[in-house]
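Below is a filled-in request sheet from our internal design queue. Each sheet records the structural input a requester submitted and the sequence that came back. We keep these sheets so that new team members can see what a complete request looks like end to end.

REQUESTER: design group, bay 2
PRIORITY: normal
MODE: inverse folding
CHAIN LENGTH: 296
BACKBONE (tokenized):
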């Protein structure tokens, strides 16, 4: 049926790209195979993802993952649960967890030494370990994690506008040039003066054209997919360790590969603090500073 939803000439496709697959029952269109499958399951009432421990079943893989994930404390090696609230309570009370600052480390991650004071921030961090995305769109497959600032470890939100405002006001963010670095990314050191630029950067989304079954807004997740995707052409397994999600470009070095991805995004995250020069690769920035400004 999915193949028919792709090839049927009688189905309405106002946008051939967005309507690569059209539902056989209605006019819903999608580009990704996973999205059309989930939509069809909503029509048929099928719930293909079943829990091996109970009678729970669901139509969406993300919902199934949230139900079946198991949290196990690596500090005390004696506590495990499938309930995130129980794990958060354990992260607060476990005496085996390192707490160099009793205030900032009110909650300590069961998997690593990350510490936070707010419940929302420790939950967001735990979900980054498990890959869960509990906030899902009721119209499509889109889901996301709450955004938490890695610079101050004190701010978390699900609202993009609130995060952009924080990217402007957070005093913990590096701003070598207060004018050019008016907005700084909450996850990295990318900065911009224009609010539209930082908004596009934060709301970016990547989808793989090779497998048509992967989409993410996280750059590290994308790079991992570019390494593991079996649908990507790799004529030389060594030189094509990483293959681009948008084209057939292959690379062995992760820094060069990131630079290539930035060219697709139209972003130049490495900016010179002495002039207007910007580059997609840090090595090019270092060479510029050395040759033009005679530094290093």
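RETURNED SEQUENCE:
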């Amino acid at each position: 049926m999915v193949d028919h939803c792709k090839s049927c000439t009688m189905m309405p496709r106002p946008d051939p790209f967005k309507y690569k697959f059209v539902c056989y029952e209605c006019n819903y269109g999608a580009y990704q195979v996973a999205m059309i499958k989930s939509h069809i399951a909503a029509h048929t009432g099928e719930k293909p993802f079943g829990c091996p421990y109970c009678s729970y079943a669901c139509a969406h893989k993300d919902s199934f993952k949230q139900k079946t994930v198991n949290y196990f404390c690596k500090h005390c090696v004696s506590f495990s649960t499938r309930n995130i609230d129980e794990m958060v309570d354990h992260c607060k009370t476990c005496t085996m967890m390192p707490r160099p600052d009793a205030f900032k480390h009110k909650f300590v991650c069961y998997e690593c030494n990350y510490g936070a004071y707010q419940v929302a921030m420790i939950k967001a961090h735990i979900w980054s370990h498990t890959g869960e995305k509990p906030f899902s769109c009721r119209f499509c497959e889109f889901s996301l994690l709450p955004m938490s600032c890695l610079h101050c470890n004190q701010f978390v939100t699900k609202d993009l506008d609130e995060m952009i405002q924080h990217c402007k006001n957070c005093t913990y963010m590096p701003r070598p040039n207060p004018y050019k670095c008016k907005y700084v990314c909450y996850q990295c050191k990318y900065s911009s003066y224009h609010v539209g630029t930082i908004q596009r950067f934060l709301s970016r989304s990547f989808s793989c054209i090779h497998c048509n079954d992967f989409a993410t807004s996280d750059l590290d997740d994308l790079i991992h997919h570019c390494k593991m995707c079996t649908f990507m052409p790799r004529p030389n397994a060594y030189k094509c360790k990483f293959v681009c999600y948008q084209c057939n470009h292959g690379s062995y070095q992760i820094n060069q590969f990131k630079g290539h991805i930035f060219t697709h995004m139209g972003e130049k995250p490495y900016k010179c603090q002495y002039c207007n020069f910007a580059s997609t690769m840090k090595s090019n920035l270092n060479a510029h500073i050395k040759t033009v400004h005679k530094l290093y």
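SHEET NOTES:
- Residues 68-130 form one domain.
- The mean pLDDT is 81.
FILED BY: M.R.
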